[in-house]
Amino acid sequence: MRPIQQKLTIDDAAGIAIPLDTYISPFNIGFGVTISAGATVDFTVQHTFDNVQDSTVTPVWFNHPTVVNQIANANGNYAFPVTAVRLNVIDNNGTITFTVIQAGIA
Q1: In angstroms, what CA-CA distances link 64 with 31, 84, 93?
Q2: Cα-atom radius of gyration of the chain, to the nearest Å?
Q3: What are the CA-CA distances from residue 70 to residues 7, 10, 34, 89 (Å)?
Q4: By percentage, how much of the chain surpasses pLDDT 70?
Q5: Closest CA to 18 of 46, 42, 56, 57
Q6: Residues 6+ apart with CB under 8 A from 28
Q7: 91: which residues sit within 8 A by CB, 6+ positions away?
Q8: pLDDT tens readout for residues 49-82
Q9: Which whole-number Å values give the CA distances from 41 to 10, 22, 46, 47, 70, in the listed order?
Q10: Cβ atoms of residues 39 and 72 within 8 Å
Q11: Which of 59, 95, 64, 94 is nearest to 79 (CA)?
């Protein structure tokens, strides 16, 4: 998968869900969150096991185990299958960039 980037510049917003391919083996996702210079932010990376492409489903989101309520650049990974990830911005005064890469897809 080519890197997917989302830039968020608004307060109290969750980014658009990024669907992932659960059939890739091994399932490996890397992600990074960068904050623009001088910005003050509070964010959490989240994942779901629900089908985000089904409009009749309201996904249940779970916080990443370590990238929770972060206020500085952060990175992490998922070694277990999840159907989608997103960046949940609790407070933002600047620009946040969320980059996701899934191994095994060109």
Answers
A1: 11, 12, 22
A2: 13
A3: 16, 16, 11, 10
A4: 92
A5: 46
A6: 77, 78, 79, 102, 103, 104
A7: 11, 12, 40, 41, 42
A8: 999 999 999 999 999 999 999 999 999 999 999 9
A9: 10, 31, 16, 20, 8
A10: no
A11: 64
How many residues are there in the chain? 106
DSSP-assigned letters across all residues of 29-70: EEEEEEE-TT-EEEEEEEEESS-TT-TT--PPPEE-SS-SSB
What's the fold here for domain 4-102? Jelly Rolls (2.60.120)
Model-level pTM?
0.88
Q: Within a 10 A sphere around the Cβ of 16, how many other Cβ atoms?
A: 14
Number of Cβ within a 10 Å radius of residue 64: 19
Structural tokens at position 91: 């407070």
The C-alpha angle with vertex 32 and arms to 9 and 36, in degrees rounded to 5, equals 35
Q: Which residue has the tokens 């980037």?
A: 5
